[in-house]
Amino acid sequence: MTAVATSSLDGAVDRAGWAALFGRSRSLALGLVVGLAGGIGLTPGFAAAGDALQVTSAWVPASDEIGIDLPLLMTIRNDAAEADAILRVRCPFANFSEKHTVDRGEGAPAMREVKSIPVPQNKTIELKRDGYHVMLLQTRQKLVDGETFTCAVVFQKAGTKETEVQVSRMP
Q1: Pairing of β 110-113 and β 148-155
Q2: 92: closest CA among 149, 30, 28?
Q3: Which sign does the torsion angle of CA 5, 7, 12, 15 carry?
């Protein structure tokens, strides 16, 4: 559960505001007040997962067309003690995204949508066109070589990682 707390000017948390905000949901309000009074602590595994997971070398191919689908490729290093997974990706230049893998069964390779992309513990994975990757669907603008964007990659345990994405003709 993620809680966002606001505080008054002196830095104290307005506990009455939390209770009023949640109204009838007293158990949730009580849990937040108790948690805020004692300090919200993250379990070591959760905190470590966020710090130990790094997204690098994110890029998308340049394109002169609008409304097309493009792969988002990147490298992910997970130094955490437990596995993680990519749940979703949001980029400002695409309407949607899907997580894909490439099946190599009978016949030609085929893309297949997956619920999440696994990121094993203590491993580095590369999202690439012929394996796991993210497809950015219905681009909203032309993507010019050399531009950069910030996309949000949401992980199951590490949370959201804001990632700089390079537009490139070549990786």
Answers
A1: unpaired
A2: 149
A3: negative
* Secondary structure (3-state) at 150: strand
**pLDDT > 90 fraction of the chain, expressed in percent and rounded:** 60
CB 32 within 8 A of CB 22: yes
Overall pTM surpassing 0.70 (yes/no): no
C-alpha distances in angstroms, 137 versus 17, 48, 96, 124?
41, 32, 5, 26
Find the mean pLDDT for residues 105-111: 81
For residues 138 and 96, the answer to whether their CB atoms sit within 8 Å is: yes
> CA 83 to CA 76: how far, in whole Å?
12
Between CA 86 and CA 97 the distance in angstroms is 12
Cα Rg of the chain (Å, integer): 20
Kindly report the average pLDDT of the chain as a whole number: 77
CA-wise closest residue to 157 among 97, 86, 71: 86
Average pLDDT over residues 134-154: 96
- Which positions ≥6 away from 124 have C-beta within 8 Å? 75, 76, 77, 78
Q: Is 111 helix (H, G, I), strand (E, B) or coil?
A: strand
Is 142:97 a contact under the CB 8 Å cutoff?
no
Report d(CA 156, CA 85) in Å as an integer: 5
The pairing of beta strand 159-168 with beta strand 53-61: parallel
